[in-house]
């Protein structure tokens, strides 16, 4: 079928990120489904042969490690999850390597942690590595580095990671493959539920219950994470298709399968803003007085020491921190210019006074406006 209308943007994309979930790659017992990997690799190879640069974000490491370790279900404790991932990641990539090699393609493993995308140096390094792999014709296979994650076993989920990777590599489309065939306006198990064909903006999501569970219990992401992933990608100008893994070829060809999320219009966030909003978590909190909240949120101003009333957490200059009011509501996140231990001595002081009393090095903002992103309803503002 020839792609027409809105979805032609996916069919004509020259660089595409495809994310596939654990439940689409493993059997119910936790074994890797080699037929699924072979089928997906063939789809990827066909698009690559057509001149499209492909990146895979693949879950499945923990799930693939269950059976070899004689685990009946996904473990709840971090140490066992990491053990399963360390066994499963090698199996997962070995199967991708073999399946892609049958089409003359080279698989390249990329394992990322939250910290890799929180620190600008690591972020830029990952960006350069992925770009060079694509230049060389390889197929990057990206996954959360579950074996060494210390804060949380998952990035949040691989759906969010996929959206960030799409921005990282400047992809022109993102395809989310799962064990569901799209977003529904109700419980898809009920006959009256209708598939949402196109999402043009937040108004099309109004009244839709997204639930929270994820398939057969081998994955971590549900519909909430997939829609949030679509929000991240579309805000960066990347259209998204959410569909069943069996429809991968049709989705990449622009056929009307699954749910299509249109790329957002208007001013798109820059790399730093998207990175701050979605690739970081606050390492601490800086509490603002009401005037500073208004200046930062409504006036797009920098945060000055005079507007700070409290500091929470242990962070150093350059870390991302959350900016909240005195009730605890977080209004923004930014890169702080001072260590947590320094700020209490600066609170309530003007930068002019600080420069005069402490020297020119102190005539700077706590957070510069170019280094912060504003939130609305718990999400970054577009």
From TrEMBL:
E.C. designation(s): 2.7.2.11
Species for this entry: Lipingzhangella rawalii
Matches recorded under CDD domains: AAK_G5K_ProB, PUA_G5K
Major enzyme class: transferase
Gene3D superfamilies linked to this entry: Acetylglutamate kinase-like (3.40.1160.10), PUA domain (2.30.130.10)
SUPFAM superfamilies, per database record: Carbamate kinase-like, PUA domain-like
GO molecular function terms attached to this record: glutamate 5-kinase activity
Binding sites annotated in the UniProt record for substrate: 59, 146, 158
Location(s) in or outside the cell: Cytoplasm
Chief location category: cytoplasm
Binding residue positions for ATP: 19, 178-179, 220-226
Stored InterPro entries: AceGlu_kinase-like_sf, Asp/Glu/Uridylate_kinase, G5K_ProB, Glu/AcGlu_kinase, Glu_5kinase, Glu_5kinase/COase_Synthase, PUA, PUA-like_sf
Pathway where this protein functions: Amino-acid biosynthesis; L-proline biosynthesis; L-glutamate 5-semialdehyde from L-glutamate: step 1/2
Record-given protein name: Glutamate 5-kinase
Task of the protein: Catalyzes the transfer of a phosphate group to glutamate to form L-glutamate 5-phosphate.
Catalyzed reactions per annotation: L-glutamate + ATP = L-glutamyl 5-phosphate + ADP
Gene designation per UniProt: proB
Residue ranges occupied by any PUA domain in the UniProt entry: 284-363
UniProt keywords, alphabetically: Amino-acid biosynthesis, ATP-binding, Cytoplasm, Kinase, Nucleotide-binding, Proline biosynthesis, Transferase
HAMAP family in alphabetical order: ProB (MF_00456)
Family label: Belongs to the glutamate 5-kinase family.
């Amino acid at each position: 079928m020839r792609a027409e209308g809105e979805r032609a943007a996916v069919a004509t994309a020259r660089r595409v990120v495809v994310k596939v979930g654990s439940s689409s790659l493993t059997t119910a017992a936790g074994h890797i489904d080699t037929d699924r990997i072979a089928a997906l690799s063939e789809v990827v190879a066909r698009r690559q042969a057509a001149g499209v640069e492909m990146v895979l974000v693949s879950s499945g490491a923990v799930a693939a490690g269950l059976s070899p370790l004689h685990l009946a279900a996904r473990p709840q404790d971090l140490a066992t999850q990491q053990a399963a991932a360390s066994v499963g990641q090698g199996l997962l990539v070995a199967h991708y390597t073999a399946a892609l090699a049958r089409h003359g393609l080279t698989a390249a493993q990329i394992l990322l942690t939250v910290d890799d995308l929180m620190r600008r140096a690591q972020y830029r390094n990952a960006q350069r590595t992925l770009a060079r792999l694509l230049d060389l014709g390889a197929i990057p296979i990206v996954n959360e580095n579950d074996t060494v994650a210390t804060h949380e076993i998952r990035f949040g989920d691989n759906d969010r990671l996929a959206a960030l990777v799409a921005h990282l590599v400047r992809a022109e489309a993102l395809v989310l493959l799962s064990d569901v065939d799209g977003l529904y306006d109700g419980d898809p198990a009920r006959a009256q539920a209708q598939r949402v064909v196109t999402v043009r903006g937040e108004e099309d999501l109004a009244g839709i219950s997204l639930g929270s569970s994820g398939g057969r219990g081998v994955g971590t992401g549900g519909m909430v994470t997939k829609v949030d992933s679509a929000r991240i990608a579309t805000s960066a100008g990347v259209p998204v298709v959410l569909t069943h893994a069996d429809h991968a070829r049709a989705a990449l060809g622009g056929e009307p399968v699954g749910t299509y999320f249109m790329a957002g219009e208007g001013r798109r966030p820059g790399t730093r803003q998207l990175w701050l909003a979605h690739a970081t978590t606050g390492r601490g909190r800086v509490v603002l007085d009401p005037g500073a909240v208004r200046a930062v949120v409504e006036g797009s101003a920098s945060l000055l020491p005079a507007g700070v009333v409290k500091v929470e957490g242990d962070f150093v200059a350059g870390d991302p921190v959350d900016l909240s009011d005195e009730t605890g509501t977080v209004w923004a996140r930014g890169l702080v210019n001072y260590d947590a231990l320094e700020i209490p001595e600066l609170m309530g002081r003007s930068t002019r006074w600080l420069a005069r009393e402490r020297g020119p090095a102190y005539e700077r903002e706590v957070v510069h406006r170019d280094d912060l992103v504003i939130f609305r309803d718990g999400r970054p503002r577009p």
